[in-house]
Amino acid sequence: MDLSNELFARALKLIPGGVNSPVRAFRSVGGSPFFVKSAHGATLVTADDRELIDFVCTWGPAIHGHNPPVIKAAIAAALEEGTSFGTPNPYEVRMAELIHALVPSIKKVRMCNSGTEATMSAIRLARGFTRRDKIIKFAGCYHGHSDSLLVKAGSGALTHGNPDSAGIPASFARETVVLPYNDPGAIDRAFAANPGAIAAVIVEPYPANVGLILPLSGYLAHLRKACSANGALLIFDEVMTGFRLARGGVQEIEGIVPDLTALGKIIGGGLPVGAFGGRAEVMDQLAPVGPVYQAGTLSGNPLAMAAGIAALELLDRNNPYPALDALGRKVRDALRAACKSKGLAAQVPQTGSMFSIFFTDREVHNYEDALTGDAKMFGRFFHGCLERGVYLPPSAYETAFISTAHEGAAIDRACEVMDSVIRGL
Ligand code: KE4
Predict the structure, then answer these.
(1) Residue 157: its pLDDT value, please?
(2) Which of 91, 142, 206, 391 is catalytic?
């Protein structure tokens, strides 16, 4: 890994930790990150010309695999007309129509440039619409790095958050109530303890930033009911799950209608895009119509819109979800069988093209359960796979993604590798 090491040494001189996003630094699994020079289909090609089967998929966007011809062609065509106009453009209208058609709860939508912007703006909008200040989030859920959302309490009890990041004023953290996920009683108690004060509940409907956690039966419906009964908005953060698990995301699968939805990742087709949308009367509180300000120089950028439109139209045309779920089950079953034959305690949650592994004998229903996973063993599993050409997310508390390009040789090879690595742990 000479060239990657050389690049990393140079990066460390000028970029904090040598990375532009912390999770890429391999800090939680040990070792140094490799650098990638190209990506196609299910494969990354490193600066040292190593080919890796990629289960990070650039953290979700690459559901069609990397650099698919249809997205490449869409970007190239848009590029002929220019890179950015700073004015409304036809692509934005098409994107808004597509999102509304695929996610019917989104009556109006605003484009932005990242998932962080989407959730941050949705929170501000919910506070402006309800004229309330407090929000509820769930321990272990990650909604990007805006101040209100980088807050989590230590335990699962009702509490005012303690900032998870330096630089967040305690006064900010006090407005964020952090609860355990999958605990209906906790949400009821939080509303009772903060009557008329909660603007919104924001949730990853399937938390996937702590490993993958699935809701207990009826839990999401309970959140919906509690928000409606208390005049708070329910915000589904579907930045990761939107268009990943179904055309209409988790809200289609679960039959729950949130008031607002945050989107990102897949809707950019690999370019920087976020979006938030929902009830028209809520969205119309946004400037220039209403008093809640939100803006962005590159929001609705034509190249990013063209890439995202191509990605969404391909999903809408091909309906890849049954095949992606079959690939997910194939990996899940291979991991479970290997752990069983090894006598290794592990939980392997999977839904559609998302899966993760916790090395623990405890079922994982929330953040505290997830923390019982053996992170050091995950590090050994991660590096064992990487040495054999399979790249998993470099953290025990992330979720792996599968693309349509993994079908066939890539998924078979990866299952073989993961099986042999587990048996060697
Ligand atoms: P971005 O600002 O990174 O585009 O999106 C933030 C975000 C919001 N909501 C959810 C559910 C998310 O998963 C994310 C970002 N996900 C992480 C990976 N788990 C991005 C990877 C990174 O931080 O480098």
Answers:
(1) 30
(2) 142
Q: Among 176, 200, 203, 198, which Cα is nearest to 126's?
A: 200
Whether 291 and 157 map to the same domain: the answer is yes
Active-site hit among 265, 321, 367, 369? 265
Asked if 143 and 132 sit in the same domain, the reply is yes
What's the pLDDT tens digit per position in 339-365?
999 999 999 999 999 999 999 999 999
Its domain, for residue 239, covers 69-318
- Residues framing ligand 1 (Cβ under 6 A): 21, 23, 59, 114-116, 119, 142-144, 204, 209, 237, 239-240, 264, 274, 398
Specify whether 175 is located in the same domain as 232.
yes
Residue 409 exposure: Cα atoms within 13 Å on the Cβ side: 5
In this structure, what DSSP letter does residue 216 have? Answer: P
Q: Are residues 264 and 333 in the same domain?
A: no
Give the distance (Å) from ligand 1 centre to CA of residue 144.
Answer: 5
Query: 367 an active-site residue?
Result: no
Shared domain for 356 and 417, answered yes or no, is yes
Domain identity same for 299 and 257: yes
Do 333 and 272 fall within a single domain?
A: no
Residue with tokens 């009830």: 279
For the segment 200-257, what is each residue's pLDDT rounded down to a tens digit? Answer: 999 999 999 999 999 999 999 999 999 999 999 999 999 999 999 999 999 999 999 9
